[in-house]
Design brief:
eight-stranded mixed barrel, 17 strands, Diaminopimelate Epimerase, Chain A, domain 1, 2 domains, alpha+beta
Amino acid sequence: MARRFFVLDVFTNQALAGNPLAVVLDAEGLSDARMQSIAREFNLSETVFVLPPENPAHSAKLRIFTPAKELPFAGHPTVGTAILLAKERFGDSDADQNAMVVLEEAIGNVRCGVVLKNGAAGFAEFDVPRLPRPADPLGDKELIAAALGLEPNEIGFENHRPCAFEAGVPFAFVPVANLAALARVSPYQAHWDDAFGRGGQMGAYIYCRQTNSHDSTFAARMFAPHMGIGEDPATGSAAAAFAGVVRHYDKITDGTHYLRIEQGFDMGRPSMIDLEVDVEAGQLNAVRIGGQAVVVSSGELYL
């Protein structure tokens, strides 16, 4: 059976940047093991399988796989698939289009607003389905530094210290002094499991305030060896959980706050993730992730 697929670059407005994503349409009849094998074949950070929705009022049901495991939720698959499904809905229309796409993911239903403009990359923004909350404790600063190939005095800035949060997928968040320290990060597997909780199963999201682009708020890199991801060019699920880090350390006030996170620059895959945070009565009330995506290839799987 021939199954259509597309590859998109996500969190970018140009091809060969951002985070590549494979989306397999018409995925009915594929077993879990078959989906995992296909994800290993693509060998991208994530591969999405699109199935008919359980609720006919929704757009699609998604299954999301890294090369090593299935995820309940992920950011760049949500943004990329929402844009692709909107493009499929409207075809080759020259008119600008706005669409609401509701995706059924393992974490729950994810609402995505999509904007399609003629001659421009598509844009999608989604409501994070689970607000960030603290995750498992991490190892001490010396272990974390050793796991990242850094010196202990390079870990932390201002009042920011290593911590863990999750908004569907847990991540260790490690602040570092500057872009030079961020560029020197080189994961050392022998210390990884002790440094990062759950036996090293968490991805490590390393960030600093210094940025390459003048309109960015933070720069980041993400490594998740146990997910089969050496380094990820852009990680929307980590950015969603990062809202909890920003609220905790920066004590952002009531209102809506707009942040931009740059990632992938050290890989030659520059990516921009928009993070929108609503704070009400001193607490996180809503988190949204947005970004652009472009289709770079398409084809068929004969499976």
